[in-house]
Task: structure prediction
Amino acid sequence: MNQPVIEILNLTKIYRGGHTPAVSNLSLTVPRGEIFGFLGANGAGKTTTIKILLGLQFATAGEVRVLGGDPASRGVRRQVGYLPERPYLQDTMGFDEFLNFHRDLFGRPLKDEKFLSNADLAALVGLTNFGRKSLKQFSKGMLQRAAIAQALINDPRLLILDEPMSGLDPVGRREVRDLILRLRDRGKTIFLSSHILSDIEQISQRIAFLEKGILKREGLVQELIKQEDSAFELIFAGENLLSIFPESRAEPGNRARITCANAGDARRLIERGWAAGAVLINCGQRHQNLEDVLFGSEAK
Result:
């Protein structure tokens, strides 16, 4: 049986001088070889949790194990790669020089370690032939991939990415998403913190959603998004539609649009419309997404 890469049991963190926990009684398990989406608004406790996973802070209560060991131990840290939300890049350096600088910070590989070469890293993040180019000349998407490359120098088993797609344009976001999927296919486990729900939905197998330090939802993405429970959207045409359907929203051309919770409600609305002489123009299922699951009616 494969041991989980991350095990969190009843984790609580209260900062000195504070009374409200930044994280409260959090329990999570991250399986090996998956992309795990860690979601929540600013102040939800995501960064605090990440710092504890990296051994940079200590829990007030509870247990945390990373790769089967203490996250603060040297042996575990050398198997983890990390991309902070705002990475500092020495932009006066060329890409190769930047990677060499960070490789020197690791020191020499231990007996059972093998660091990736600059050529391997450049190929992995899609920056081949940019080794001598100054980071000042990189686009924002290229800089983010360069930052991920430095997190991969030690060929980590676990990669922790904090908001890796924040501030990128659609092309840059797609490039980073594709890179994360390639890393998963190479056997990496990726713990991905983000507030961009659409990106998380596309690439994560599992997610956890924090709100004010408390775990609100957790599980497989496809199980959370249950299409059979998706809302139905109906469009009718005719006269006096708002009298027939007070719950509807008026549309141009004597039309009305109604969203209902399930197929049974849709059937009853259609029967009501037919009895009143309204014409059904369209009936379709409105598939849920993560935004619907996490925020319900507030997201619509």
Summary: The first helix runs from residue 46 to 53. Residues 228-296 form a domain with the Alpha-Beta Plaits fold (CATH 3.30.70). The two ends are 42 Å apart (CA to CA).
